[in-house]
Amino acid sequence: MELKTFFECHPRLALAFSGGADSAYLLYAGQKWAQKLGVYYVHSTFQPAFERRDAERLAKELGVGMQILEADVLGCPEITANPPDRCYHCKQVIMSTIRRQAALDGFDTVIDGTNASDDIGDRPGYKALGEQGVLSPLRLCGITKAEVRRLSRDAGLFTWDKPAYACLATRVRTGEEITREKLEAVEKSEDILFEMGFSDFRVRTAGDEAKLQFVAGQQPAARAREEEIRAVLSRYFGKIIIDPNEREASV
C-alpha cells in the first residue's frame, strides 16, 4: 500500500507526534493527504526539552496546529518501579492520553511513527500500541527508516538526519526506581555534552554512577576530553566513566 492510499482510506486521523524523524514525516504526509489531521505531542518528565522544541519548530514550519498534552508518568507506580516492561505501561499512559483528547476532538483513529525497520518482537511498548488500536502507517506501507530519511530530505524537513533518541527513562538501570532528580541529572548532563559538540551518545545511570556511551566516531574526542567531561558532570554524579565499548550509531 502507498502512504497516500493509507491516508485516503483513513481521512480523519490523530497523530502521536514526538518530534522525531518518523512522526515528523507522517506529519508532513498527513498534512498533504489526510482530510483532517489532529496533531498531539505528549509532554512528560521523560522527554528532554529539545524534543518539544523540535516538535514545535516543525509544526510551525509546516503551518500545522499542535496540541501539547501532559502525562504524569511519575504518578504511575508500574512505570517508576522501572520493570523490564516499563515501556508497555508508559505507552499505555501516553496513548490513552492522546486517545481521550482525540475522541473529544472527533478522531477515532490514532497513528504513530513506527516504521518497517523497527524490531517490534522484543519491545513491550509495541504491545501497548496494539491494545490501544494505534495504527502505524509507515510500517503498514513497508517504509523503512532509511526511506523515511530520504523522503524527509527530499521534502526539506530539518528532521531528516535527526538521530534516534530514546526517552530519558531508558537511561536508568532496569529495576532501579525512576525519580525526577535522576531524570534531571541525565538531561542536564546530556545537554552539556551536546554543547561540547557531541551528538550521538547516552548518559546511563546506576545509583550515583554515570556511564557515558559514545559512537565510534566520537569516542576519540571523548577520551581526549575525559578530564574536562568528568569535571563538568561531577556536579550530577559521584562517579563518571566512559564506556570503552562504542555504542551503535542511532539510525
Q: State the CATH architecture of the largest domain.
A: 3-Layer(aba) Sandwich
Beginning-to-end CA distance, first to last residue: 24 Å
How does the major sheet shape up?
4 strands, parallel
Level-1 CATH class name of the largest domain: Alpha Beta
Catalogue the unreliable spans.
Answer: none
Helix content: 40-55%
Residue share in β-strands: 5-15%
Rg over CA atoms: 19 Å
What are the salient characteristics of this protein?
alpha/beta; 251 residues; 11 helices
Which SSEs are present, and which pair or pack?
Blueprint (H helix, E strand, L loop, with lengths): L2 H7 L2 E5 L4 H13 L2 E8 L5 H14 L4 E4 L6 H4 L5 H19 L5 E2 L12 H8 L5 H4 L4 H11 L24 H16 L5 E6 L2 E6 L4 H6 L1 H8 L5 E4 L9
Parallel strand pairs: 1-2, 1-4, 2-3, 6-7
Antiparallel strand pairs: 5-6
Helix pairs in contact: 2-3, 2-8, 5-6
Q: What would you say about this model in short?
A:
It is built from eleven helices and seven strands. The chain is an alpha/beta fold and 251 residues long.
